Amino acid sequence: MLFPLSLLPFCLRLQLVSLLLIGIAAWGIGFGLISSLRVVGVVIAVGIFLFLIALVGLIGAVKHHQVLLFFYMIILLLVFIVQFSVSCACLALNEEQQGQLLEVGWNNTASARDDIQRNLNCCGFRSVNANDTCLASCKTSGHSCSPCAPIIGKYAGEVLSFVGGIGLFFSFTEILGVWLTYRYRNQKDPRANPSAFL
User: How far does CA 65 lie from the centroid of its chain?
Assistant: First the structure.
């Protein structure tokens, strides 16, 4: 009965990460840091998805349910592939690529742009345009505002390295969880009737 106990930390870690995602999204909305409902909705949906996957793994490990463990193993493997790929991409981006990615994101979203300008006290991406609407306090008070690209770029490299490293670490723990699930799934259930053929 060693393997169900060794699977529990992986399922519980996944549940903790999912609850953390949901909590951070709610915190961001509660404090007014994020006003984009699309971003919050995606974060909460990912959190609920991970929570359900962890629940499937927990039930499968405790009940020694072959089908649940199989689906848990397959979905965890897919999560590993996506997380590993995104982590490697975060670590591989250079400053020029980060700038291009930030500019595309800046041009494609209006609500996040307003949040960034208000929270970082800057206007525009590469240059300040007097005709654009800006919610920064520097614009409303009449002071000169600095563009947002240098301010965002200063933090982007650090954030991408941090997120990439954490994602890479957790992706390797997920592949360990897939391996343990595979090993445990192929064991015979100790509570089963020993005289039964299958």
Answer: 28
Nearest to 67 by CA among 181, 180, 176: 181
Specify whether the CB–CB gap between 15 and 30 falls below 8 A: no
83-107 pLDDT per residue, tens: 889 888 888 888 888 888 888 888 8
Compare 161 and 186 and report the one with higher pLDDT. Answer: 161
* Alpha-carbon torsion (80, 83, 87, 89), positive or negative: positive
Instruction: Give dist(CA 155, CA 14) in Å, integer.
Output: 27
Distance (Å, whole) CA 128 – CA 19: 39
Select from 41, 27, 45, 34 the least CA-distant residue to 111. Answer: 34
Query: Environment class of residue 37 by beta-carbon count within 10 Å: exposed (0-12), middle (13-18) or buried (19+)?
Result: exposed
**Residue of 151, 42, 159, 147 whose CA lies nearest to 93:** 159
Nearest to 57 by CA among 181, 187, 188: 181
Prediction pTM value: 0.71
Task: At 62, list the tokens.
Answer: 């405790």
What is d(CA 144, CA 128) in angstroms, rounded to the nearest whole number?
9
Which of 21, 25, 64, 5 has the alpha carbon at shortest distance from 170? Answer: 21
CB 166, CB 89: distance < 8 Å = no
What is the spatial distance between Cα 54 and Cα 11, in angstroms, rounded to a whole number?
Answer: 5
Burial class (CB in 10 A: 0-12, 13-18, 19+), 40: middle
